[in-house]
Amino acid sequence: MGWELIVVMVVPLVVGLASWWTPAKLSRVLSLASGLLSFVLALTLIPARSATALSGWLRVDALSVVFMVTVAFLYMTTAVFAAGDLRPGGDKRYLRRFFAGFNLFAWAMLMATAVNGFALLWVAIEITTIISALLVAIEGTDTATEAAWKYVVIASMGLGIALFGTIVLYEAGTVVFGSSYEPFYSELLRAAGRFSPELVRLSFVLAVLGFGTKMGLVPLHTWLPDAHSEAPTAVSALLSGALLAVSFYAILRFYQVSIRTLGPAFPRDILLGFGLASLVLSSLSLANQRDLKRLFAYSSIEHMGVLAVGMSFSTRIAVVGVLLHVLAHAAAKSTAFFGAGSVTNTFGTKDMRRIRGGTAALPWSGPMLLLAVLGLSAMPPFGLFRSEFLIVSGGLTDPKDAVAAVLLVLGSAATLGLSWFASQTMLTPAGRRPPSGTGVRGSSEELAPAEACPALPGSPPARSSAWIVAAMATGLGALALLGVHPPGVLSGLLERAARELGALR
Amino acid sequence: MLRLATLWTAGVPAVAPAFSPGPSRYSSVTEAITLVVLLTEFAMLRAGLSRSQVRLYAFQSFAVSVLAVFVAANNGIGELYAVAILAFVLKVVVVPAILTRLLRDAYVGLVASHRLRVATMVLIAIVVSVLAFIVIKQLPIRSPSLPTATMGIACAVILVSFLLVILRSDVVSQAVGTFSLGNGIDVANFIIAAGLPLILGVVLLFDLLVAAVVFGLLIRAHHGRARTLSTETLEQLRG
Questions:
Q1: Average pLDDT over residues B14-28
Q2: Predicted complex: ipTM over 0.85
Q3: Looking at the domain assignment, is residue A52 inside a domain?
Q4: For testing the chain B interface, which of A58, A127, A180, A292 should be mutated: the one with the most B CBs within 10 Å?
Q5: Contact: B189, A167; criterion CB under 8 Å
Q6: A489 in Cβ contact with A45 (< 8 Å)
């Protein structure tokens, strides 16, 4: 086994490069095929304990497969969404750039989950930054350029710190391996007990600061709401559901080494601090948002906080919950962004004060957006309810984690506001002011769909299409499946990954 | 575990023996070169022209390439020569050329981009550098290739590059600050991980090249729309 890894590494890259020259119609088909193939191949890796290719430079274990499945699923559903959102016939230059960047972005994220070693992991994540910065700026507006600039500067500085952390970890390994060695995961993990605790402690802090910047942990999150709100919808979905998860994956790789050298106390304290800060700030910020996509961006920060707090509990049940949360968040957030894209295309604005009657204008994607928002608020029967339930249960097993577990519940409860705001936008009939005292204030400039204008450059106004509905239905279906009855093979994968993360109790 | 370590070390090319205190000339030269890298970073803090920023970055990169050659020669790390040559070509020639070309129509003064007075900025940078020395001294780093004291200088370069990005409100300084952060990390790399496999060193450098192109494109897009290199206009998105 291992050829799957090579195919997953080659096909999106080739499709990305080819999209620069091929017509938009063909790029669309190739992207769909590449997304589907990547997802199917990622699924075939689930039962395997590990797979290796290219003399060990590519290697996946249960932990990497969880994240590879997440990225591949989003690659597939986003390609379906883009097929409906960006129709051939629009601005050819825009479509060429979009499909090339989109596939290369997915390729870089898949590569991050497949490479074997800390240095290559850093390289892959740096490539994701470079490509996604261009995608954020692709619409060429003032605000898109501003968001892309902030993103590339802040993320590059963060990744500079992460590279420093990687070098410090390399230095820690020289005690065992000598001056020159390949920093492969499995070898470093086997020898981690003999590393210098001071160096591993420093490398973990640097990794959390560096990759935490890309993950959107507070206070390193400032680029995130801007980039997520200004990027094209398909890119916002990938940024939120996949890129943040991949950055979290990088932190988990350092976490694996750290707990073997230092024990669980130090890594969990660091993650708990960042996680709680993210939960609190995002919950407070959600109430002030007027931009639909920014609302979802802050929701992403909240969910990254949940992941960090969940890992700090470090019990088996909590870690399984964290990994399930990664999958469920990807499904829910991508669906929510797809719905937001439909709303934006239909109403020509992202300002929630100006949008009314969403479900009437979008009879399919409108209700599905509402369901996705309920899912994001961790309502049953969706996957995020199950995952947060597992995380809180894991936290409550240890009395000293109980306070954090309660805070996590309160933080999640605060995000019910997300459902309230979105419901106002979607359910309030056009022309009617919402009740006073709600987060969404009425506006004399409210827009009904008839006043809508196209939002994407050179693209006909795609209010909603079968492609968009299919992408959202797939995301919702996955979210419901993860909540109601996760497949046994997937549960087994999550258990194995939790064991790899040292969660045995 | 010991067997694993033996297998690994047996399979890698021989690297020079651990750094020894003498001869002091080697220590002095390497410390002098890293100090030049740090002083160049300080110069970037006060540079008033975008052209000067790019030239200072090229000079700093040149100093880093010389350091790499010096470390390679003194410690017999053949692979480091290749990294040094590539670093010279990309960081001293190609990246500055790309930035210069993209900024051809935008050569304007950046004096107004200092968020604080120059003297205040330099004082902050000095305090930050001293802090870097104090913190690094506490770490058990045993360099096989360079005097461990240079690690403090490398960290100071990294921290001052952060200041450059924070305290200058123009896109050229912020881009150059990001690239010079890479130079600081390179120095740290030579000190504690000089044996990092060649392929990774090459990948990291090409990564920088692509990043430079992306930064350049965004700078051009910003200048094309706002007719300024200042980041003061990039403040529409808030909350």
A1: 56
A2: no
A3: yes
A4: A180
A5: yes
A6: no
